[in-house]
Structures are given as C-alpha cells and as structure tokens.
Amino acid sequence: MAVIAFRMKLRPGCQAEYQRRHAEIWPELLTLLSDSGISDYRIFLDEPTDMLFAVQSVAGESSQALGQTEIVQRWWAYMADLMDVNADNSPVSVPLREVFHMS
Description:
carbohydrate metabolism; single chain; Alpha-Beta Plaits; EC 5.1.3.32; Rham/fucose_mutarotase; alpha+beta
C-alpha cells in the first residue's frame, strides 16, 4: 500500500462550508473510495492560507483517478463553488513529494 499526499486550495470564506459538507459526506462516495482501495484518507486545513493538505493510503490509484465515475463527478460539482477547480470541476490538485517518514 502506498501513501500519497496532495494539496488543494479553498476560496476565501469557504472553510466552514467545506467542513460542513465533509461532515455529511455521501455514504456512496465513501463506499466507492473504500472499494477502490483508498483508506486512511485525511484532509488538513491551513487556516491562514486556505490551503488543504490531503493524505491517503492507496492500494490502487488515488481518489483523483476516480473522476470518470458518476458519483465523483457529482461530488466535484457539489464542491466546485468552494475551491479552485479545473474545467471539469475536479479540484486543482498538486501532488506532494514525501521528504521524510518516521516509521
């Protein structure tokens, strides 16, 4: 299993709504992520910059690779008003390189 990390950017003033929507994440989206080999998925917020830092354990591809599925496309559309997105509503996502790991 690999661990990957990436960052995303919230629009100003959207922190509370982003957290609210994730507190009510759709069960079918969680099932898709889990069934696709994604586990221990965490998103951290750097409040002063509105930057999000995501990390997930993956047995296959990352959550970003699930964009062809209907449920992910609906989630992206649902979240598009809160964050920087691409033309297809996918979050602008910048992969992060691991530079240290204490095991």
